[in-house]
C-alpha cells in the first residue's frame, strides 16, 4: 500500500515501514491511538506490523503479536517481539523453526493450525488423477503439459473452493500460510512449491513441512520429467500427518487464550474488561490507510501469504 511520504529515506533499523511526511501513515496511527483512548481495550492483537505493536505498547495496552514463519531475526522483528507481552503462533509446536531463539519459543502460545474450513465435513471423495493447483498459471500449465493424462484444475475466482479441494487426489500449492492450512484442513496429499517472499517465509515453512514428513517440497519448479515422480511421492506420503497440523480446534484454542489474557489484563487494571475487538471506527476514519488491526475474532486464518 502506498501511503505517500518522502521516498529514498531508509526506516530506522528497528522499523519496517516509517516513511517521512506520509499523511496516510499519520492518519492511521492517529486513528488507532484515538480508538485506544476511547475504548481502553484490555488487549491489542497485532497481525504483522511492528510499528502498530510499538504504538499500542507505548499507549499502555498489553499487546499480543501473531508470529509467522521465516527468518525473523532482523532488528525490527526482534524489537516488536520484545515489546509484545505475549506471542501467538497459528501452528503447532512441532512446526517451529529450530533456529528460533529459545526466548521467543518460551513466550509463544501455539494454537495449532486452523483455516476457514474448520468444522466443515468433507462430503466429496477424491477423484483419481485430479490435481488441484493453488499456485501460478505457469505451474498449472507446466503440470498439465507434463502429465496430459491427469486432470489439472487451477483454483481461482470467487467460488467456494472447499469441495474442489476435497476432490483432489493431490494438491499443489505454494507454502503460504493459508494455502497450507486449507490443504491440511481437507486432508489431501500436498506438494509445496515455495514462492519468493520476504524473510524466506514460504521457503522456511516448506522445509519444515517436508522435514516433519507431512508434505513434499521442492524449491525449484519441477521440470517436465519430474512431475510424475513428485506427485507419486506426495500420494505415497498421504495426508495423515496433516491431521496434526489442523485438528479443527486451533481457532478455539486461540480464542480461549486471548480471552484469558484480556481477562487477566482487565482484572489487573481494576477496570471492566473490554472485548477483544477491531477498531471499527478506523475504516471510516481512514479508509485507505489502515492495514494493521486487532482481530475481532479468531475465525479466520491470519492473512499470511
Protein architecture, described:
With 305 residues, the protein is α/β, with parallel strands linked by helices. It has two domains: 23-114 and 249-285, no CATH class; 130-244, Rossmann fold. Helix content is 36%, strand content 10%. The protein contains eleven helices and nine strands. Strands 6-5-7-8-9 form a five-stranded parallel β-sheet, sandwiched between helices. It has a four-stranded parallel β-sheet with strand order 1-2-3-4, sandwiched between helices. Helix 8 links the parallel strand 8 (190-192) and strand 9. Helix 2 packs parallel to helix 3. The protein is elongated.
Short précis:
The chain has 305 residues and is α/β, with parallel strands linked by helices. The chain has eleven helices and nine strands.
List the helices and strands and how they pair.
Elements: H1 23-39, E1 44-46, H2 50-58, E2 63-66, H3 75-83, E3 86-89, H4 102-106, E4 108-110, E5 130-134, H5 137-146, E6 151-154, H6 162-166, E7 170-173, H7 177-185, E8 190-192, H8 201-211, E9 216-217, H9 227-237, H10 250-269, H11 281-285
Helix pairs in contact: 2-3
Strand content: 5-15%
Which structural class do you get from the secondary structure elements?
Answer: alpha/beta
Helix proportion range: 25-40%
- Average pLDDT metric: 86
Number of structural domains:
2
Distance between the termini: 15 Å
Are there runs of 5+ residues with pLDDT below 50, and where?
272-305
The radius of gyration computed from the alpha-carbon positions, rounded to a whole number of angstroms, is 21 Å
Strand adjacency order, main sheet: 6-5-7-8-9
Helix count, DSSP H or I runs of 4 or more residues: 11
Largest sheet: 5 strands, parallel
- State the shape: elongated
Amino acid at each position: 500500500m502506498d501511503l505517500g511520504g518522502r521516498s529514498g529515506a531508509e526506516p530506522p533499523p528497528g522499523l519496517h515501514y516509517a516513511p517521512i511526511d506520509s499523511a496516510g501513515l499519520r492518519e492511521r496511527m492517529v486513528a488507532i491511538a484515538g480508538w485506544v483512548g476511547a475504548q481502553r481495550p484490555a488487549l491489542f492483537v497485532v497481525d504483522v506490523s511492528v510499528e502498530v505493536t510499538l504504538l499500542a505498547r507505548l499507549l499502555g495496552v498489553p499487546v499480543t503479536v501473531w508470529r509467522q514463519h521465516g527468518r525473523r531475526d532482523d532488528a525490527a522483528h526482534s524489537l516488536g517481539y520484545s515489546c509484545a507481552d505475549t506471542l501467538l503462533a497459528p501452528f503447532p509446536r512441532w512446526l517451529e523453526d529450530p533456529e528460533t531463539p529459545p526466548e521467543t519459543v518460551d513466550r509463544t502460545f501455539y494454537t495449532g493450525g486452523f483455516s476457514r474450513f474448520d468444522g466443515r465435513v468433507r462430503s466429496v471423495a477424491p477423484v483419481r488423477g485430479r490435481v488441484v493447483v493453488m499456485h501460478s498459471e505457469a505451474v498449472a500449465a507446466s503440470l498439465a503439459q507434463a502429465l496430459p493424462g491427469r486432470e489439472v484444475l487451477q483454483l481461482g475466482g470467487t467460488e467456494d473452493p472447499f469441495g474442489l479441494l476435497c476432490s483432489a487426489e493431490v494438491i499443489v500449492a505454494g507454502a503460504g500460510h493459508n494455502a497450507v492450512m486449507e490443504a491440511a484442513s481437507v486432508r489431501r496429499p500436498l506438494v509445496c512449491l515455495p514462492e519468493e517472499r520476504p524473510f524466506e517465509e514460504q521457503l522456511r515453512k516448506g522445509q519444515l513441512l517436508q522435514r516433519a514428513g507431512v508434505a513434499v517440497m521442492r524449491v525449484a519448479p519441477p521440470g517436465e520429467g519430474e512431475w510424475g515422480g513428485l506427485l507419486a511421492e506426495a500420494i505415497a506420503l498421504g495426508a495423515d500427518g496433516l491431521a496434526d497440523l489442523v485438528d479443527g480446534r486451533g481457532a478455539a484454542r486461540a480464542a480461549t487464550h486471548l480471552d484469558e489474557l484480556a481477562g487477566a489484563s482487565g482484572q489487573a487494571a481494576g477496570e471492566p474488561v473490554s472485548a477483544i475487538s477491531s477498531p471499527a471506527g478506523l475504516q471510516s476514519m481512514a479508509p485507505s490507510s489502515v492495514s494493521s488491526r486487532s482481530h475481532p475474532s479468531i475465525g479466520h486464518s491470519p492473512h499470511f501469504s
